[in-house]
Amino acid sequence: MSVAPQLAVQAGNDELFPLKTLTLELRLTAPAGAPAAQRLLAAPFSCALRLAGQNELVECETTNGAEAQVTAPGAGLLQLMDGRARIQLKVKPSILERAGEDATAALVVRLHEPGTPGNRSGAKDKRKVVLTGESTLLKICSKCLSINCADSKIPTKWYKDEGGQSNCLQVEISLTDSKGKRITEAEQQVSVSLKLMYEEGTEVSSQSILAVAKDTYNLTEQGFVKILARVMEVSQRHQGKKFMIKAFTSTPGVAAGFTTPVCVLSKRKRHQRKKEENEKRVKDFQRNLASAATSPAGAAG
After folding, report:
1. What is the CB-side half-sphere exposure of residue 20 using CA atoms within 13 A?
2. What is the pLDDT of residues 188-202, one digit of tens each?
3. Cβ–Cβ < 8 Å for 80, 109
């Protein structure tokens, strides 16, 4: 008896927020050499959202992923390497109006018959669907914890043994709405906690290496809080993996925020540190010149 190919869909987290890119990991499983599986190794695909309790699918806009060549909103050519692929997508803010409060939804990925004409308008795709995969239910959020990831706050390389105990990662968190605007008058108090993650999104098993002053912090009336944090182990002790800090809350409808990946190192040799500091000064100087040239006063001069 032949076994039909199956498509597993796993989301990078359990929340959906309109402004945030969500990564989907896909895995195609089938018996070795199965003809159908071979055809699907490079198949057109499309993504949609299925609201819990509804059969209607809401089309999603996809963006370029590591192994997906997207040619149109909501559709593209998927390249499955060893039966695996990664795609990225965003949902439109209008989904909040359709979904309502405390809604959940599953992400649906459809593989289409190769060679069939695609849809370039972003409307419902009419190509023949040959395989469908669906994620678990995700929470749709109307607010998000956004983190300021400027290099002066969250550098791509952080040297934990330079500058003493005052050398910290500055995790500046704001509560924002689906348009990216800070919410200054929240309906309820929002308490925030931090968690240390690896770059690929998995949780670090020993959370004790993330040093913060306390377990939870309350956002101010202006919807903001600044938390100083230190990572007490270098990336080399974790197979060279970069770290991310996740800011999360138990408040319903608020999605978690993440810093950009940080490579944690011990300290630089003196000549290396001087070189990098000089390079930073040059970049800052060039940035200031460019900013002055584009400002109204600079243009007038």
Report:
1. 26
2. 789 999 999 999 889
3. no
